[in-house]
Design brief:
The relative contact order is 0.20. Helix content is 34%, strand content 18%. The chain has a six-stranded antiparallel sheet, with helices on both faces. The mean pLDDT is 85. Helix 6 packs antiparallel against helix 7. It is an alpha+beta fold. The longest helix is centred in the first third of the chain and has 13 residues. The protein has one domain.
Amino acid sequence: MQGNGLVVDREAPSFLSAECERIIDTRKRLPDFVFRGPFADYFAIEYGHIYKKSFGMLLFQIATIFEDESVNYMALDPPPDSYYRASSVFGAASFQASSLVERYESVLSREQNVPQLLAGVNVGVFWGSSLKWGIHCDRISWEMAVIAVSEHVDVPRISGYHCMDASWLADYVKSLYHAKDPSDSIASDFTRGFLANYPI
């Protein structure tokens, strides 16, 4: 791995993938239940938050609560090894928790002359080395991210984000795809399935 967090070691994605699979079923997509087991709380947020520097701060705060040594990211769609052929960098990143805030935006999203991993990703996941929390981020399935934590964490308070409740989720999904489905059946089916799996 490089010091900035980008994964360049060909063996590293296998390790990260195996660790990730312990808490996230990487074959599943929302609105299915994408985690390997139940968590204490779930929070739904708009996908766009993950591009912001404030999301790095949220990851750091969650990592601090669960005493993680590292916080990891891996692309699921496209698969992480597809990046290597084009840029010699895998679609994955691993950060020491202590340097996460300063490195998050530059490595994953914004800085010039650094592969911007989030730019080409449709589905990706974050998790901490404690394996006590995970975040599934899905642009394809209605532009949202689901945060799962193994004990109570006041995500709205520590992040400043307005997390969705059932009513907001229904309106959000409907607004995104109303033009494609005037009958709202697709949006309604997604919302119903999501709320059956995630008590937000």
